Amino acid sequence: MRPTIRQLFKFPRTPTYSNTGSVARDHLASERTFLAWMRTGLGFVALGIAVERFSQLDLETLIDHLLPEHAKASRQSRSDVEKETRERQSREQLLVGTLLGTGGGSIVYGITRYFGTIRALEKGSFRPAYFGAAGLGIVVSGMAGAAYYGTMRREIRRWEAENEVNRATLGSVKPKK
């Protein structure tokens, strides 16, 4: 016996609950929380895609066209630029992967939490979720800390390199008598 169109669309119907006490309010609150997790996850995914897209810009070429000739001559050697470009791309790939993973994890957690909460509410119970929000907070704090650490480490290296050049330049200058 072949199923009819009506039978096919009967399967995914949502259950109907009697609105006694705070049943409707609880389910609507659960739905709002689910949508908040979706927005959070999509925000991380969108940020990851934006970082990936901007990392594809060839900023070195753009800057070379804007700089005057004397500034181009004083720029770093080509091998130094290529090394810095590889390091930057590696950092960007790590950031993009972390953002996309965090976004995907938020979406998956939101889905599982939503359906778990619906099942619990059907049984008349509710279990608060502390670990999802705490986990997301830890991941975001870790990303911010890693970004700060990486930025400070690069600035310290740049400052040390400039000081070495200055010391070498000052060391080659003979004092006047």
Could you describe the 3D structure shown?
- The structure is a single chain.
- The protein is mainly alpha-helical and 177 residues long.
- It has a domain at 30-125.
- 79% of the residues lie in helices and 0% in strands.
- It has six helices and no strands.
- The protein has helices spanning 5-10, 23-55, 59-66, 69-73, 78-122, 131-172.
- The chain is elongated and about 100 Å long.
- The termini are far apart.
Summary, kept brief:
The chain contains 6 helices and no strands. The chain is mostly helical and 177 residues long. The mean pLDDT is 82.
Shape: elongated
Structural class: mainly alpha
Question: Overall pLDDT, averaged?
Answer: 82
Find the count of extended strands (DSSP E, 2+ residues). 0
Distance between the termini: 110 Å
Number of helices: 6
Major sheet characteristics: none
State the order of secondary-structure elements, H for helix, E for strand.
HHHHHH
- Determine Rg (CA atoms, Å): 28 Å
Helix coverage percent of residues? over 70%
Low-confidence stretches: none
Give the percentage of residues in beta strands: under 5%
What labels describe this entry?
177 residues, mainly alpha, 6 helices
In terms of topology, how is this protein built?
Blueprint lengths: L4 H6 L12 H33 L3 H8 L2 H5 L4 H45 L8 H42 L5
Helix pairs in contact: 2-5, 5-6
Main location: membrane
Subcellular location: Cell membrane
Membrane topology: Multi-pass membrane protein
